[in-house]
Amino acid sequence: MMSILSYIGIGLATGVLSGLLGVGGGVILVPALVFIFSFTMKNAVGTSLAIIVPIAMVGSYLHYREGNVKFLLAIYIAIAAVIGSRIGVYLCTCLPNLTLKRIFGILLLFLGIKMIIGR
Predict the structure, then answer these.
(1) pLDDT tens for residues 33-72?
(2) Residue 60 in contact with residue 34, Cβ under 8 Å?
(3) CA dihedral sign of residues 91, 97, 99, 100
């Protein structure tokens, strides 16, 4: 029962932060699944991608209603992201979990510093 409540709590936090800041799958779910629920990095990434689909659909629709979606830009980026995802999944299968954790941590650290400092 505690696991289910924990999963629900992570889901609620992910949904709130996704709708508020546009983050969720990678930034919230992957570390939570790895450190709280002891998933391997590869399982966390795959599970996160599956979870983010409904979050993105609902969030996109609600932001669309508010006039916050730039469709042409979204289409261009989505096409490139689908291609990039294929490459990323291939790389994920080739790299060890520890390497993936380190890459992920460095990326989050860099992005966090960039966001705090600004341009």
Answers:
(1) 999 999 999 999 999 999 988 988 998 999 999 999 999 9
(2) no
(3) positive
- The reply to whether the predicted model has a pTM over 0.90 is no
Contact in structure between 41 and 34 (CB atoms under 8 Å): yes
- Rounded distance, CA 103 to CA 115, Å? 18
Identify the pLDDT of residue 1.
66
Q: What is the 3-state secondary structure (H, E, C) of the chain?
A: CHHHHHHHHHHHHHHHHHHHHCCCHHHHHHHHHHHHCCCCHHHHHHHHHHHHHHHHHHHHHHHHHCCCCCHHHHHHHHHHHHHHHHHHHHHHHHCCHHHHHHHHHHHHHHHHHHHHHCC
- Cα gap 87→65, rounded to integer Å: 33
Q: Please report, to the nearest 10 degrees, the dihedral formed by the alpha carbons of residues 92, 24, 110, 79 taken in order.
A: 60
Which two tokens mark 68?
């916050």
